[in-house]
Amino acid sequence: MHIPLLALAATVTAVFAKPLSPTQDDWYTQPSNISDYAPGQTIRSRQLPAQIQPLLPLPVNVSVNAVHQFLHRTTDSLGNAVAAVTTLIEPANADPGKLLAYELYYDTANPNCEPSYTLQYDSDPAGLPGILIRNSTLSPDTAFLAASLNQGWWIATTDYEGLDAQFSAGVISGQATLDGVRVALSEGPKHGLSTEPRYALWGYSGGSIAVGYAAELQPSYAPELSFVGAAAGGNIANLSSTLSTVNQGLFAGLAFGAINGLAKAYPNVSDWLDASLVEDKRAEFTSIASSCLIGEGTAGVLKDIYSFFVNGAASFAEDVPVSIMRIAGQLGVRGTPSMPMYIYKPVHDEISPGDDTDEMVDTYCENGATVEYIRDLAGTHPTLWVTGSANALGWIKDRLDGKEVSNVGSCTRQNVLWSGLNKDTIPLFGEELWSALKWTLGGVLGE
Length: 447
Ligand SMILES: *[C@@H]1O[C@H](CO)[C@@H](O)[C@H](O)[C@H]1NC(C)=O
Ligand SMILES: *[C@@H]1O[C@H](CO)[C@@H](O)[C@H](O)[C@H]1NC(C)=O
Ligand SMILES: *[C@@H]1O[C@H](CO)[C@@H](O)[C@H](O)[C@H]1NC(C)=O
Ligand SMILES: *[C@@H]1O[C@H](CO)[C@@H](O)[C@H](O)[C@H]1NC(C)=O
Ligand SMILES: *[C@@H]1O[C@H](CO)[C@@H](O)[C@H](O)[C@H]1NC(C)=O
Hints:
Family: Belongs to the AB hydrolase superfamily. Lipase family.
Keywords: Hydrolase, Signal
Number of domains: 2
Shape: globular
Helix content: 25-40%
GO molecular function, one term: triacylglycerol lipase activity
Strand order of the largest sheet: 1-2-3-5-4-6-7-8-9-10
Number of helices: 15
InterPro entries: AB_hydrolase_fold, Lipase_secreted
Number of strands: 10
Pfam families: LIP
Bound molecules: 2-acetamido-2-deoxy-beta-D-glucopyranose
Structural class: alpha/beta
């Protein structure tokens, strides 16, 4: 039997004040002396109520002991000192020796949809049924964050797009992720984390941008860190081909948010966008491009993004977007991951072509990386999110348990017809969470 969720919500709201959104909350303000801080150094911290926002209007139990947040220094895409926020969560029955940096896909250029806010209990302006409402801030990816907490792992999750939500800008996403781990390692021990935990990275889809760039940049940007591994799925290995793949399809809204995010990261993209938008479609572009994920998805569905640009698709072939796609949206060019990688990807991914991830893995492997690559021949981007992530959870568990990968310095590739629901992995989730995940996919996983 579950306590009816609305009753639970009413009880809890009486105790905790409704959180302020990042644009209203002074705590998020970057200090003027930001460049005096070292990357990963804490600027300020706070402890929040030990409760996180349920992922869906379903009674999924996510029991946490403590939630801490840190505003810390990181480095943006142009090399400037900027601030970012990392949330550190201690689960019930925490194992002090295990830390996972779980990078949520939040896929939006709206700062009020950053996880440090959306994870806070009662943050959704639309209320729990808000999953159906355009400006809902609920993030479905919280499911795997919850599954990870249920393993007893400490979780660090970073607002890796930076304070102003530079969605799809790879460099800041990677650097903020690494600085989020630095802050978790320095601050965590004050709250019960071991001083020398094992730590790993994980992210799917938009989260794989943060994880992929973090893995490539770690040897140069954060050489002192030593990850036991990184799992990245539904990879966005080439942003340029991703934009043309999603265009006019179910996920077309993502392209609007991504362009807006790049314009925040790069002044020349901002100028290009300003000069290239069709005047009478500017307001519609801005509305879609600044929604949270659910609004972006529903308002952008089937839209032709090229129709918003004065030169149509040719606008994207101009020097500025071409240069930025290469700098900010192309994996395999920033460095070779030195940590073991687990990559899982649908060959027929309807968001980002499977070929691009094949190419990324080839590049890593030619350069001596350690990669286990699962190519799913039948799954789709949303189904692999669930089935593939279940197996990724098992891979991360082995790494955090201290088991070494068997393929050090080499690559394995496996073609699977349909990422099996590994019978050993489902119990890791617990029945309730598993049911919720199946529900999010509308039953496509069957029983
Ligand atoms: C930044 O300025 C604040 C306020 O003056 C000061 O308290 C803090 O120590 C400074 N930080 C650094 C790293 O210098
Ligand atoms: C939620 O988890 C806690 C800690 O594991 C447990 O004590 C509690 O009974 C669970 N509640 C439900 C409704 O499953
Ligand atoms: C969300 O949408 C509702 C209904 O349109 C509106 O009343 C509310 O102010 C919006 N909230 C935010 C944070 O945009
Ligand atoms: C990325 O995709 C674009 C558009 O499809 C293509 O022109 C470019 O060559 C790709 N980049 C790499 C490195 O494969
Ligand atoms: C746009 O700006 C970035 C970052 O400053 C720069 O590297 C790139 O070369 C610029 N693109 C063009 C076409 O000037």
